[in-house]
Protein backbone atom coordinates (compact mmCIF):
# COMPACT_ATOMS: atom_id res chain seq x y z
CA UNK A 1 0.00 0.00 0.00
CA UNK A 2 1.23 3.48 -0.92
CA UNK A 3 0.15 6.99 -0.02
CA UNK A 4 -0.25 10.13 -2.09
CA UNK A 5 0.43 12.30 0.98
CA UNK A 6 2.56 10.15 3.31
CA UNK A 7 3.65 13.18 5.33
CA UNK A 8 0.17 13.31 6.91
CA UNK A 9 0.85 10.00 8.63
CA UNK A 10 2.90 11.89 11.22
CA UNK A 11 -0.47 12.95 12.62
CA UNK A 12 -0.83 9.41 13.97
CA UNK A 13 1.50 10.50 16.77
CA UNK A 14 -1.36 12.64 18.06
CA UNK A 15 -3.14 9.44 19.07
CA UNK A 16 -1.05 9.53 22.23
CA UNK A 17 -3.14 12.44 23.50
CA UNK A 18 -6.46 10.58 23.99
CA UNK A 19 -4.51 7.71 25.53
CA UNK A 20 -2.95 10.03 28.12
CA UNK A 21 -6.30 11.66 28.87
CA UNK A 22 -7.94 8.31 29.21
CA UNK A 23 -5.28 7.02 31.57
CA UNK A 24 -5.61 10.16 33.64
CA UNK A 25 -9.32 9.53 34.01
CA UNK A 26 -8.62 5.90 35.00
CA UNK A 27 -6.22 6.77 37.88
CA UNK A 28 -6.61 4.67 41.04
CA UNK A 29 -9.05 6.07 43.68
CA UNK A 30 -8.18 6.29 47.38
CA UNK A 31 -10.25 3.90 49.51
CA UNK A 32 -12.52 5.47 52.10
CA UNK A 33 -14.25 3.23 54.53
CA UNK A 34 -17.97 4.03 54.38
CA UNK A 35 -19.98 1.18 55.73
CA UNK A 36 -19.81 -2.46 56.36
CA UNK A 37 -22.86 -3.38 54.37
CA UNK A 38 -21.81 -6.27 52.10
CA UNK A 39 -24.54 -5.73 49.56
CA UNK A 40 -23.48 -2.16 48.82
CA UNK A 41 -19.84 -3.24 48.43
CA UNK A 42 -20.72 -5.81 45.77
CA UNK A 43 -22.77 -3.28 43.74
CA UNK A 44 -19.95 -0.73 43.89
CA UNK A 45 -17.34 -3.26 42.73
CA UNK A 46 -19.51 -4.43 39.83
CA UNK A 47 -20.29 -0.87 38.70
CA UNK A 48 -16.62 0.10 38.79
CA UNK A 49 -15.56 -2.85 36.54
CA UNK A 50 -18.34 -2.13 34.08
CA UNK A 51 -17.35 1.53 33.88
CA UNK A 52 -13.71 0.69 33.19
CA UNK A 53 -14.61 -1.73 30.34
CA UNK A 54 -16.86 0.90 28.78
CA UNK A 55 -14.09 3.49 28.92
CA UNK A 56 -11.55 1.10 27.34
CA UNK A 57 -13.96 0.31 24.48
CA UNK A 58 -14.63 4.00 23.99
CA UNK A 59 -10.90 4.71 23.88
CA UNK A 60 -10.35 1.95 21.32
CA UNK A 61 -13.12 3.16 18.98
CA UNK A 62 -11.92 6.76 19.22
CA UNK A 63 -8.36 5.75 18.41
CA UNK A 64 -9.50 3.72 15.43
CA UNK A 65 -11.78 6.56 14.30
CA UNK A 66 -8.95 9.11 14.41
CA UNK A 67 -6.47 6.70 12.79
CA UNK A 68 -8.86 5.99 9.90
CA UNK A 69 -9.50 9.71 9.40
CA UNK A 70 -5.76 10.49 9.31
CA UNK A 71 -5.05 7.62 6.89
CA UNK A 72 -7.95 8.74 4.67
CA UNK A 73 -6.42 12.22 4.38
CA UNK A 74 -3.09 10.61 3.38
CA UNK A 75 -4.99 8.96 0.45
CA UNK A 76 -3.72 5.37 0.43
CA UNK A 77 -3.78 3.27 -2.74
CA UNK A 78 -2.45 0.03 -4.18
CA UNK A 79 -1.42 -0.55 -7.86
CA UNK A 80 -3.07 -3.30 -9.85
CA UNK A 81 0.11 -4.17 -11.73
CA UNK A 82 3.76 -4.52 -10.89
CA UNK A 83 4.50 -2.39 -13.99
CA UNK A 84 2.61 0.56 -12.60
CA UNK A 85 4.19 3.90 -13.45
CA UNK A 86 2.94 7.37 -12.70
CA UNK A 87 3.15 8.34 -16.39
CA UNK A 88 2.20 6.47 -19.57
CA UNK A 89 2.04 7.07 -23.32
CA UNK A 90 -0.50 5.56 -25.69
CA UNK A 91 -0.23 5.40 -29.49
CA UNK A 92 -3.16 4.01 -31.48
CA UNK A 93 -3.16 2.95 -35.14
CA UNK A 94 -6.59 2.46 -36.70
CA UNK A 95 -6.68 0.69 -40.05
CA UNK A 96 -9.23 2.49 -42.23
CA UNK A 97 -8.57 0.52 -45.42
CA UNK A 98 -11.42 -0.76 -47.56
CA UNK A 99 -11.41 -4.22 -46.00
CA UNK A 100 -12.66 -2.57 -42.80
CA UNK A 101 -15.98 -2.03 -44.62
CA UNK A 102 -16.80 -5.65 -43.81
CA UNK A 103 -19.76 -6.12 -41.49
CA UNK A 104 -19.13 -6.97 -37.86
CA UNK A 105 -21.63 -7.68 -35.09
CA UNK A 106 -22.21 -3.93 -34.56
CA UNK A 107 -21.98 -2.48 -38.06
CA UNK A 108 -18.84 -2.14 -40.14
CA UNK A 109 -15.54 -2.99 -38.48
CA UNK A 110 -14.32 0.59 -38.86
CA UNK A 111 -17.40 2.19 -37.30
CA UNK A 112 -17.47 -0.21 -34.35
CA UNK A 113 -13.77 0.49 -33.66
CA UNK A 114 -14.39 4.24 -33.75
CA UNK A 115 -17.33 3.90 -31.36
CA UNK A 116 -15.25 1.89 -28.87
CA UNK A 117 -12.43 4.44 -28.98
CA UNK A 118 -14.83 7.29 -28.22
CA UNK A 119 -16.60 5.41 -25.42
CA UNK A 120 -13.67 3.82 -23.58
CA UNK A 121 -10.82 6.33 -23.81
CA UNK A 122 -11.04 9.27 -21.42
CA UNK A 123 -11.80 12.28 -23.57
CA UNK A 124 -9.01 14.37 -22.03
CA UNK A 125 -6.32 11.67 -22.00
CA UNK A 126 -3.32 12.49 -24.19
CA UNK A 127 -2.84 10.01 -27.04
CA UNK A 128 -1.21 9.84 -30.47
CA UNK A 129 -3.63 8.62 -33.13
CA UNK A 130 -2.94 7.77 -36.76
CA UNK A 131 -4.58 5.99 -39.69
CA UNK A 132 -3.48 5.11 -43.21
CA UNK A 133 -3.85 8.71 -44.35
CA UNK A 134 -3.78 10.91 -41.21
CA UNK A 135 -1.59 11.54 -38.16
CA UNK A 136 -2.65 13.26 -34.92
CA UNK A 137 0.21 13.53 -32.39
CA UNK A 138 -0.32 14.43 -28.73
CA UNK A 139 -4.06 14.93 -29.00
CA UNK A 140 -7.21 13.88 -27.15
CA UNK A 141 -10.37 12.04 -28.13
CA UNK A 142 -12.31 15.20 -27.34
CA UNK A 143 -10.23 17.19 -29.84
CA UNK A 144 -10.60 14.69 -32.69
CA UNK A 145 -14.07 13.34 -31.94
CA UNK A 146 -15.69 14.95 -34.99
CA UNK A 147 -12.90 13.70 -37.25
CA UNK A 148 -13.31 10.19 -35.85
CA UNK A 149 -17.04 10.24 -36.50
CA UNK A 150 -16.48 11.42 -40.08
CA UNK A 151 -13.49 9.12 -40.75
CA UNK A 152 -13.81 7.46 -44.16
CA UNK A 153 -12.04 4.53 -45.78
CA UNK A 154 -8.70 5.11 -47.42
CA UNK A 155 -7.71 3.59 -50.79
CA UNK A 156 -4.11 3.22 -49.58
CA UNK A 157 -3.09 0.98 -46.71
CA UNK A 158 0.32 1.22 -45.09
CA UNK A 159 1.99 -2.09 -44.34
CA UNK A 160 1.90 -3.47 -40.81
CA UNK A 161 5.66 -3.07 -40.58
CA UNK A 162 5.29 0.60 -41.49
CA UNK A 163 2.54 1.00 -38.89
CA UNK A 164 4.79 -0.52 -36.22
CA UNK A 165 7.69 1.76 -37.17
CA UNK A 166 5.48 4.84 -37.30
CA UNK A 167 3.96 4.00 -33.92
CA UNK A 168 7.36 3.39 -32.36
CA UNK A 169 8.67 6.74 -33.60
CA UNK A 170 5.65 8.50 -32.10
CA UNK A 171 6.78 7.80 -28.53
CA UNK A 172 8.96 10.20 -26.57
CA UNK A 173 12.54 9.43 -25.54
CA UNK A 174 11.55 9.29 -21.85
CA UNK A 175 12.52 5.80 -20.65
CA UNK A 176 10.56 6.11 -17.40
CA UNK A 177 7.15 6.04 -19.08
CA UNK A 178 5.04 3.00 -19.86
CA UNK A 179 4.61 2.90 -23.65
CA UNK A 180 1.50 1.25 -25.13
CA UNK A 181 1.16 0.73 -28.89
CA UNK A 182 -2.27 -0.46 -30.06
CA UNK A 183 -2.81 -1.67 -33.64
CA UNK A 184 -6.48 -1.98 -34.60
CA UNK A 185 -7.11 -3.82 -37.86
CA UNK A 186 -8.64 -6.88 -39.44
CA UNK A 187 -5.05 -7.90 -40.30
CA UNK A 188 -5.86 -8.93 -43.83
CA UNK A 189 -3.32 -11.16 -45.53
CA UNK A 190 -1.12 -9.52 -48.15
CA UNK A 191 1.95 -10.70 -50.00
CA UNK A 192 4.36 -9.46 -47.31
CA UNK A 193 4.98 -11.54 -44.18
CA UNK A 194 3.62 -10.38 -40.84
CA UNK A 195 6.40 -9.14 -38.56
CA UNK A 196 5.82 -7.81 -35.03
CA UNK A 197 9.37 -7.16 -33.84
CA UNK A 198 9.35 -4.10 -31.57
CA UNK A 199 11.41 -2.52 -28.83
CA UNK A 200 11.15 -4.39 -25.53
CA UNK A 201 10.16 -1.14 -23.82
CA UNK A 202 6.95 -0.97 -25.87
CA UNK A 203 3.85 -2.90 -24.86
CA UNK A 204 2.32 -4.02 -28.20
CA UNK A 205 -1.39 -4.84 -28.25
CA UNK A 206 -3.06 -6.15 -31.41
CA UNK A 207 -6.81 -5.80 -31.79
CA UNK A 208 -8.02 -8.07 -34.59
CA UNK A 209 -11.57 -7.25 -35.65
CA UNK A 210 -13.24 -10.06 -37.53
CA UNK A 211 -16.26 -9.78 -39.85
CA UNK A 212 -19.38 -11.87 -39.41
CA UNK A 213 -18.69 -13.62 -42.74
CA UNK A 214 -15.99 -13.63 -45.40
CA UNK A 215 -18.26 -13.39 -48.43
CA UNK A 216 -17.55 -10.78 -51.09
CA UNK A 217 -18.20 -10.26 -54.78
CA UNK A 218 -16.18 -7.70 -56.74
CA UNK A 219 -15.90 -6.29 -60.24
CA UNK A 220 -12.29 -7.25 -60.72
CA UNK A 221 -11.38 -5.82 -64.13
CA UNK A 222 -12.61 -4.77 -67.56
CA UNK A 223 -10.82 -5.03 -70.90
CA UNK A 224 -11.48 -4.87 -74.65
CA UNK A 225 -11.54 -8.48 -75.83
CA UNK A 226 -12.46 -7.95 -79.48
CA UNK A 227 -12.64 -5.05 -81.93
CA UNK A 228 -13.98 -4.74 -85.46
CA UNK A 229 -14.95 -1.88 -87.76
CA UNK A 230 -18.31 -1.40 -86.03
CA UNK A 231 -18.22 -2.73 -82.48
CA UNK A 232 -16.07 -3.30 -79.42
CA UNK A 233 -16.56 -6.26 -77.11
CA UNK A 234 -15.96 -5.27 -73.50
CA UNK A 235 -15.28 -8.19 -71.14
CA UNK A 236 -15.83 -7.82 -67.39
CA UNK A 237 -14.35 -10.20 -64.83
CA UNK A 238 -16.32 -10.85 -61.63
CA UNK A 239 -14.44 -12.27 -58.64
CA UNK A 240 -16.35 -14.21 -56.00
CA UNK A 241 -14.86 -15.23 -52.63
CA UNK A 242 -18.07 -16.52 -51.09
CA UNK A 243 -21.02 -18.73 -51.93
CA UNK A 244 -21.76 -19.54 -55.59
CA UNK A 245 -23.41 -16.71 -57.52
CA UNK A 246 -26.81 -17.24 -59.09
CA UNK A 247 -27.79 -14.62 -61.68
CA UNK A 248 -25.88 -11.69 -60.23
CA UNK A 249 -27.06 -8.57 -62.16
CA UNK A 250 -24.33 -6.48 -63.82
CA UNK A 251 -25.42 -3.03 -64.99
CA UNK A 252 -23.69 -0.85 -67.60
CA UNK A 253 -24.14 2.93 -67.58
CA UNK A 254 -23.05 5.63 -70.00
CA UNK A 255 -22.74 8.65 -67.73
CA UNK A 256 -25.91 8.20 -65.65
CA UNK A 257 -27.95 6.41 -68.31
CA UNK A 258 -28.50 2.65 -68.04
CA UNK A 259 -27.67 1.22 -71.46
CA UNK A 260 -27.39 -2.52 -70.82
CA UNK A 261 -27.85 -5.17 -68.18
CA UNK A 262 -26.65 -8.75 -67.92
CA UNK A 263 -26.12 -11.42 -65.28
CA UNK A 264 -23.37 -13.81 -64.28
CA UNK A 265 -23.23 -17.22 -62.58
CA UNK A 266 -20.00 -18.29 -60.93
CA UNK A 267 -18.52 -20.24 -58.06
CA UNK A 268 -15.23 -18.31 -58.04
CA UNK A 269 -14.65 -16.12 -61.10
CA UNK A 270 -17.14 -15.26 -63.80
CA UNK A 271 -17.31 -12.96 -66.80
CA UNK A 272 -19.82 -11.04 -68.82
CA UNK A 273 -19.47 -9.33 -72.22
CA UNK A 274 -21.06 -6.09 -73.44
CA UNK A 275 -21.01 -4.90 -77.06
CA UNK A 276 -20.33 -1.19 -77.56
CA UNK A 277 -20.10 0.98 -80.69
CA UNK A 278 -16.58 1.46 -82.09
CA UNK A 279 -14.82 4.83 -82.08
CA UNK A 280 -17.41 6.66 -79.97
CA UNK A 281 -17.09 8.49 -76.67
CA UNK A 282 -18.34 6.35 -73.80
CA UNK A 283 -18.10 7.36 -70.11
CA UNK A 284 -18.83 3.98 -68.67
CA UNK A 285 -19.73 2.69 -65.21
CA UNK A 286 -20.21 -0.96 -64.28
CA UNK A 287 -22.21 -1.77 -61.17
CA UNK A 288 -23.27 -4.78 -59.10
CA UNK A 289 -25.05 -5.16 -55.77
CA UNK A 290 -23.27 -7.09 -53.04
CA UNK A 291 -23.73 -7.33 -49.27
CA UNK A 292 -19.97 -7.60 -48.66
CA UNK A 293 -17.49 -4.80 -49.33
CA UNK A 294 -19.00 -1.87 -51.20
CA UNK A 295 -15.93 -0.14 -52.65
CA UNK A 296 -15.41 -2.81 -55.34
CA UNK A 297 -19.04 -2.93 -56.54
CA UNK A 298 -18.43 -0.18 -59.11
CA UNK A 299 -15.84 0.17 -61.87
CA UNK A 300 -15.44 3.24 -64.09
CA UNK A 301 -13.96 3.22 -67.60
CA UNK A 302 -13.63 5.41 -70.69
CA UNK A 303 -13.74 4.68 -74.39
CA UNK A 304 -12.53 7.59 -76.53
CA UNK A 305 -12.37 8.25 -80.21
CA UNK A 306 -9.13 6.76 -81.45
CA UNK A 307 -6.14 9.07 -81.71
CA UNK A 308 -3.69 8.47 -84.53
CA UNK A 309 -0.01 8.09 -83.69
CA UNK A 310 2.31 9.87 -86.10
CA UNK A 311 5.15 7.73 -87.42
CA UNK A 312 7.89 9.00 -89.73
CA UNK A 313 10.23 6.60 -91.51
CA UNK A 314 13.53 7.85 -92.98
CA UNK A 315 14.68 5.21 -95.43
CA UNK A 316 17.57 3.96 -97.45
CA UNK A 317 16.00 0.51 -97.59
CA UNK A 318 12.63 -1.06 -98.32
CA UNK A 319 9.99 0.04 -95.77
CA UNK A 320 7.14 -2.24 -96.88
CA UNK A 321 7.21 -4.12 -93.57
CA UNK A 322 6.79 -0.82 -91.69
CA UNK A 323 3.75 0.13 -93.78
CA UNK A 324 2.13 -3.20 -92.96
CA UNK A 325 2.63 -2.70 -89.23
CA UNK A 326 1.80 1.00 -88.91
CA UNK A 327 -1.60 0.90 -90.62
CA UNK A 328 -3.99 3.77 -91.13
CA UNK A 329 -6.55 2.66 -88.53
CA UNK A 330 -4.17 3.49 -85.67
CA UNK A 331 -1.18 5.29 -87.15
CA UNK A 332 -0.44 8.15 -89.49
CA UNK A 333 2.55 6.76 -91.38
CA UNK A 334 4.82 8.99 -93.44
CA UNK A 335 7.86 7.82 -95.38
CA UNK A 336 10.79 9.82 -96.74
CA UNK A 337 14.07 8.96 -98.36
CA UNK A 338 16.97 10.58 -96.58
CA UNK A 339 17.80 12.96 -99.42
CA UNK A 340 14.14 14.07 -99.64
CA UNK A 341 13.50 14.56 -95.92
CA UNK A 342 11.54 17.64 -94.85
CA UNK A 343 13.10 18.54 -91.50
CA UNK A 344 10.08 20.64 -90.57
CA UNK A 345 7.97 17.48 -90.18
CA UNK A 346 10.23 15.95 -87.50
CA UNK A 347 8.92 17.94 -84.52
CA UNK A 348 5.30 16.93 -85.15
CA UNK A 349 5.95 13.15 -85.04
CA UNK A 350 5.56 10.66 -82.20
CA UNK A 351 7.92 8.00 -83.59
CA UNK A 352 10.79 8.30 -86.07
CA UNK A 353 12.37 5.21 -87.65
CA UNK A 354 15.85 5.36 -89.17
CA UNK A 355 15.59 2.50 -91.65
CA UNK A 356 19.10 1.31 -92.59
CA UNK A 357 20.67 4.70 -93.23
CA UNK A 358 24.34 4.37 -94.08
CA UNK A 359 25.46 7.80 -92.89
CA UNK A 360 23.53 10.02 -90.46
CA UNK A 361 24.17 13.70 -91.27
CA UNK A 362 25.12 15.99 -88.38
CA UNK A 363 22.06 18.14 -89.06
CA UNK A 364 19.82 15.07 -88.68
CA UNK A 365 21.65 14.04 -85.49
CA UNK A 366 20.95 17.44 -83.98
CA UNK A 367 17.29 17.36 -85.08
CA UNK A 368 16.77 13.84 -83.70
CA UNK A 369 18.30 14.73 -80.33
CA UNK A 370 15.98 17.75 -80.06
CA UNK A 371 13.06 15.51 -81.07
CA UNK A 372 13.71 12.90 -78.35
CA UNK A 373 14.40 15.58 -75.74
CA UNK A 374 10.91 16.86 -76.52
CA UNK A 375 9.34 13.48 -75.73
CA UNK A 376 9.54 11.78 -79.12
CA UNK A 377 10.64 8.16 -79.66
CA UNK A 378 13.45 7.12 -81.98
CA UNK A 379 13.97 3.63 -83.48
CA UNK A 380 17.32 2.89 -85.16
CA UNK A 381 17.74 0.06 -87.67
CA UNK A 382 21.37 0.20 -88.86
CA UNK A 383 22.65 -0.65 -92.31
CA UNK A 384 25.01 -3.54 -92.93
CA UNK A 385 27.68 -1.11 -94.10
CA UNK A 386 26.84 1.85 -91.85
CA UNK A 387 29.30 4.69 -91.38
CA UNK A 388 30.02 3.93 -87.73
CA UNK A 389 31.40 7.37 -86.90
CA UNK A 390 28.04 8.99 -87.70
CA UNK A 391 26.13 6.41 -85.64
CA UNK A 392 28.55 6.67 -82.76
CA UNK A 393 28.24 10.45 -82.76
CA UNK A 394 24.49 9.99 -82.33
CA UNK A 395 25.03 7.49 -79.50
CA UNK A 396 27.43 9.88 -77.76
CA UNK A 397 24.66 12.47 -77.66
CA UNK A 398 22.58 9.94 -75.71
CA UNK A 399 25.44 8.95 -73.38
CA UNK A 400 25.38 5.30 -74.41
CA UNK A 401 28.06 2.96 -75.71
CA UNK A 402 29.18 3.06 -79.32
CA UNK A 403 29.18 0.40 -82.06
CA UNK A 404 32.26 -1.67 -82.78
CA UNK A 405 32.91 -3.01 -86.27
CA UNK A 406 30.52 -5.58 -87.75
CA UNK A 407 30.90 -9.21 -86.75
CA UNK A 408 30.39 -11.43 -89.82
CA UNK A 409 29.05 -14.56 -88.18
CA UNK A 410 25.63 -16.12 -88.01
CA UNK A 411 23.95 -15.79 -84.64
CA UNK A 412 20.50 -16.77 -83.45
CA UNK A 413 18.29 -14.46 -81.41
CA UNK A 414 17.47 -16.78 -78.52
CA UNK A 415 16.86 -14.63 -75.44
CA UNK A 416 13.53 -12.85 -75.00
CA UNK A 417 12.96 -10.53 -72.05
CA UNK A 418 9.33 -11.44 -71.39
CA UNK A 419 9.05 -8.89 -68.57
CA UNK A 420 10.00 -5.92 -70.77
CA UNK A 421 7.09 -3.48 -71.36
CA UNK A 422 7.21 -4.20 -75.12
CA UNK A 423 6.58 -7.92 -74.56
CA UNK A 424 4.86 -8.15 -71.18
CA UNK A 425 1.42 -9.01 -72.63
CA UNK A 426 2.55 -10.63 -75.89
CA UNK A 427 3.02 -14.24 -74.70
CA UNK A 428 0.60 -16.29 -72.63
CA UNK A 429 3.56 -18.22 -71.24
CA UNK A 430 7.33 -18.37 -71.60
CA UNK A 431 8.35 -20.29 -74.71
CA UNK A 432 11.35 -22.62 -74.80
CA UNK A 433 10.96 -24.24 -78.25
CA UNK A 434 10.65 -21.02 -80.23
CA UNK A 435 11.84 -20.94 -83.87
CA UNK A 436 14.49 -18.33 -83.28
CA UNK A 437 15.39 -15.79 -85.99
CA UNK A 438 19.01 -15.17 -86.96
CA UNK A 439 21.33 -12.56 -88.45
CA UNK A 440 24.45 -12.90 -90.59
CA UNK A 441 26.20 -9.69 -89.59
CA UNK A 442 25.75 -7.59 -86.49
CA UNK A 443 27.25 -4.81 -84.45
CA UNK A 444 28.39 -5.17 -80.86
CA UNK A 445 28.24 -2.35 -78.35
CA UNK A 446 31.50 -1.41 -76.70
CA UNK A 447 29.84 -1.29 -73.28
CA UNK A 448 26.46 -1.06 -71.54
CA UNK A 449 23.78 0.17 -73.89
CA UNK A 450 20.57 0.18 -71.87
CA UNK A 451 17.89 -2.41 -71.21
CA UNK A 452 17.92 -5.45 -73.47
CA UNK A 453 14.70 -6.54 -75.13
CA UNK A 454 16.07 -9.31 -77.38
CA UNK A 455 19.53 -10.93 -77.12
CA UNK A 456 21.67 -13.20 -79.26
CA UNK A 457 22.69 -16.64 -78.09
CA UNK A 458 25.96 -15.22 -76.76
CA UNK A 459 23.98 -12.75 -74.60
CA UNK A 460 24.94 -9.70 -76.68
CA UNK A 461 21.95 -7.44 -77.42
CA UNK A 462 19.91 -7.49 -80.62
CA UNK A 463 17.41 -4.83 -79.52
CA UNK A 464 18.02 -2.41 -76.66
CA UNK A 465 16.14 0.46 -75.05
CA UNK A 466 17.65 3.57 -73.50
CA UNK A 467 14.69 5.69 -72.34
CA UNK A 468 12.93 6.67 -75.60
CA UNK A 469 15.71 5.41 -77.90
CA UNK A 470 15.40 1.88 -79.34
CA UNK A 471 18.34 0.38 -81.25
CA UNK A 472 18.72 -2.79 -83.33
CA UNK A 473 22.29 -4.04 -83.66
CA UNK A 474 21.77 -5.64 -87.06
CA UNK A 475 20.14 -4.74 -90.35
CA UNK A 476 16.70 -6.28 -90.93
CA UNK A 477 16.85 -6.69 -94.70
CA UNK A 478 16.25 -10.22 -95.94
CA UNK A 479 19.86 -10.67 -97.06
CA UNK A 480 21.11 -10.19 -93.52
CA UNK A 481 18.30 -11.48 -91.31
CA UNK A 482 15.06 -13.43 -91.34
CA UNK A 483 13.68 -11.34 -88.44
CA UNK A 484 11.01 -9.87 -90.75
CA UNK A 485 9.53 -13.37 -91.06
CA UNK A 486 9.60 -13.93 -87.30
CA UNK A 487 6.41 -13.59 -85.25
CA UNK A 488 8.35 -11.23 -82.97
CA UNK A 489 8.61 -8.34 -85.42
CA UNK A 490 4.97 -7.32 -85.35
CA UNK A 491 4.47 -7.06 -81.54
CA UNK A 492 7.89 -5.44 -81.05
CA UNK A 493 7.54 -2.70 -83.66
CA UNK A 494 3.81 -2.27 -83.03
CA UNK A 495 4.33 -1.75 -79.29
CA UNK A 496 7.19 0.66 -79.90
CA UNK A 497 4.75 2.69 -81.98
CA UNK A 498 1.93 2.42 -79.43
CA UNK A 499 4.17 3.41 -76.54
CA UNK A 500 5.52 6.46 -78.38
CA UNK A 501 2.22 8.11 -77.47
CA UNK A 502 0.70 6.68 -74.28
CA UNK A 503 -2.95 6.62 -75.29
CA UNK A 504 -5.33 6.62 -72.39
CA UNK A 505 -6.31 3.24 -70.99
CA UNK A 506 -9.80 2.11 -70.10
CA UNK A 507 -9.05 3.15 -66.53
CA UNK A 508 -6.23 3.81 -64.08
CA UNK A 509 -5.63 2.57 -60.55
CA UNK A 510 -5.52 4.97 -57.61
CA UNK A 511 -2.35 4.62 -55.56
CA UNK A 512 -0.16 3.53 -58.47
CA UNK A 513 2.01 5.79 -60.58
CA UNK A 514 0.26 6.43 -63.89
CA UNK A 515 1.86 8.22 -66.84
CA UNK A 516 -0.75 9.56 -69.25
CA UNK A 517 -0.03 11.42 -72.49
CA UNK A 518 -2.52 14.11 -73.48
CA UNK A 519 -2.21 14.84 -77.19
CA UNK A 520 -2.38 18.63 -77.16
CA UNK A 521 -0.27 21.74 -77.69
CA UNK A 522 -0.16 24.19 -74.80
CA UNK A 523 0.58 27.85 -74.92
CA UNK A 524 3.30 29.27 -72.72
CA UNK A 525 2.43 29.18 -68.99
CA UNK A 526 -0.65 26.98 -69.62
CA UNK A 527 -1.16 24.00 -67.31
CA UNK A 528 -3.55 21.07 -67.32
CA UNK A 529 -5.87 20.35 -64.40
CA UNK A 530 -7.72 17.24 -63.27
CA UNK A 531 -11.28 17.91 -62.16
CA UNK A 532 -13.99 20.46 -62.75
CA UNK A 533 -13.94 24.16 -61.96
CA UNK A 534 -15.17 23.67 -58.39
CA UNK A 535 -12.83 20.83 -57.44
CA UNK A 536 -9.62 20.62 -59.45
CA UNK A 537 -6.01 19.70 -58.78
CA UNK A 538 -2.80 20.18 -60.73
CA UNK A 539 -0.96 16.86 -61.23
CA UNK A 540 2.72 16.49 -62.01
CA UNK A 541 3.16 17.18 -65.71
CA UNK A 542 5.80 17.65 -68.36
CA UNK A 543 5.06 19.66 -71.48
CA UNK A 544 6.40 18.66 -74.90
CA UNK A 545 5.79 20.09 -78.34
CA UNK A 546 2.84 17.87 -79.25
CA UNK A 547 1.78 16.39 -75.95
CA UNK A 548 1.66 16.78 -72.18
CA UNK A 549 2.62 13.88 -69.93
CA UNK A 550 0.58 13.69 -66.72
CA UNK A 551 1.82 11.70 -63.72
CA UNK A 552 -0.71 10.67 -61.09
CA UNK A 553 -0.27 8.63 -57.93
CA UNK A 554 -2.26 9.48 -54.80
CA UNK A 555 -4.68 11.75 -56.65
CA UNK A 556 -7.56 11.42 -57.17
CA UNK A 557 -8.62 10.16 -53.77
CA UNK A 558 -12.02 8.93 -54.95
CA UNK A 559 -12.90 6.65 -57.84
CA UNK A 560 -14.75 8.19 -60.74
CA UNK A 561 -14.51 9.82 -64.15
CA UNK A 562 -12.47 13.01 -64.04
CA UNK A 563 -12.03 15.55 -66.87
CA UNK A 564 -8.66 16.86 -68.02
CA UNK A 565 -9.03 20.60 -68.49
CA UNK A 566 -7.02 23.37 -70.09
CA UNK A 567 -8.57 26.51 -68.63
CA UNK A 568 -12.30 25.97 -69.32
CA UNK A 569 -11.83 23.45 -72.13
CA UNK A 570 -12.30 19.74 -71.46
CA UNK A 571 -9.61 17.87 -73.39
CA UNK A 572 -10.27 14.35 -72.21
CA UNK A 573 -12.06 12.19 -69.65
CA UNK A 574 -10.04 9.80 -67.47
CA UNK A 575 -11.38 7.02 -65.25
CA UNK A 576 -9.82 6.06 -61.92
CA UNK A 577 -10.67 3.02 -59.79
CA UNK A 578 -9.57 1.66 -56.44
CA UNK A 579 -7.06 -1.16 -56.25
CA UNK A 580 -8.82 -4.52 -55.86
CA UNK A 581 -6.18 -6.13 -53.62
CA UNK A 582 -8.43 -5.94 -50.54
CA UNK A 583 -11.38 -7.69 -52.16
CA UNK A 584 -10.14 -11.11 -51.00
CA UNK A 585 -11.16 -11.46 -47.36
CA UNK A 586 -8.35 -13.64 -46.04
CA UNK A 587 -6.80 -12.81 -42.67
CA UNK A 588 -3.74 -13.59 -40.57
CA UNK A 589 -4.28 -16.10 -37.78
CA UNK A 590 -2.57 -14.10 -35.04
CA UNK A 591 -3.45 -16.56 -32.32
CA UNK A 592 -0.98 -19.06 -33.77
CA UNK A 593 1.93 -16.60 -33.46
CA UNK A 594 3.66 -16.91 -30.11
CA UNK A 595 4.37 -13.90 -27.93
CA UNK A 596 1.58 -11.68 -29.24
CA UNK A 597 -0.95 -9.89 -27.06
CA UNK A 598 -4.08 -10.26 -29.19
CA UNK A 599 -7.61 -9.22 -28.29
CA UNK A 600 -10.83 -9.20 -30.29
CA UNK A 601 -12.24 -5.87 -29.12
CA UNK A 602 -10.99 -2.33 -28.75
CA UNK A 603 -12.68 -1.99 -25.36
CA UNK A 604 -10.73 -4.94 -23.95
CA UNK A 605 -7.37 -3.53 -25.10
CA UNK A 606 -8.13 -0.09 -23.65
CA UNK A 607 -9.24 -1.58 -20.33
CA UNK A 608 -6.01 -3.60 -20.16
CA UNK A 609 -4.03 -0.38 -20.55
CA UNK A 610 -6.05 1.30 -17.84
CA UNK A 611 -5.57 -1.61 -15.45
CA UNK A 612 -1.81 -1.36 -15.88
CA UNK A 613 -1.71 2.35 -15.13
CA UNK A 614 -4.65 2.88 -12.75
CA UNK A 615 -4.67 2.22 -8.97
CA UNK A 616 -7.14 1.12 -6.33
CA UNK A 617 -7.76 4.18 -4.15
CA UNK A 618 -8.51 3.15 -0.55
CA UNK A 619 -9.26 6.50 1.11
CA UNK A 620 -13.01 6.00 0.69
CA UNK A 621 -12.82 2.75 2.63
CA UNK A 622 -11.04 4.46 5.52
CA UNK A 623 -13.71 7.18 5.59
CA UNK A 624 -16.33 4.45 5.81
CA UNK A 625 -14.38 2.76 8.62
CA UNK A 626 -14.12 6.08 10.49
CA UNK A 627 -17.89 6.59 10.27
CA UNK A 628 -18.45 3.02 11.39
CA UNK A 629 -16.26 3.51 14.48
CA UNK A 630 -18.08 6.77 15.24
CA UNK A 631 -21.41 4.95 15.17
CA UNK A 632 -20.00 2.15 17.34
CA UNK A 633 -18.77 4.70 19.87
CA UNK A 634 -22.19 6.36 20.03
CA UNK A 635 -23.84 3.00 20.54
CA UNK A 636 -21.40 2.13 23.34
CA UNK A 637 -21.98 5.40 25.11
CA UNK A 638 -25.73 5.11 24.85
CA UNK A 639 -26.44 1.45 25.50
CA UNK A 640 -23.43 0.07 27.36
CA UNK A 641 -24.05 0.36 31.11
TrEMBL record:
What SUPFAM superfamilies does its record include? Class I glutamine amidotransferase-like
Q: Which segments constitute the Aerotolerance regulator N-terminal domain?
A: 1-76
Question: Which regions span the lipid bilayer?
Answer: 6-24, 56-78, 618-640
> What residue range is the signal peptide?
none
Q: InterPro entries given for it?
A: Aerotolerance_reg_N (IPR024163), Class_I_gatase-like (IPR029062), Double_TM_dom (IPR011933), vWFA_dom_sf (IPR036465)
Identify the domain of life: Bacteria
NCBIfam families hit by this protein: two_anch
- Official protein name in the record: Membrane protein (TIGR02226 family)
Record organism: Meridianimaribacter flavus
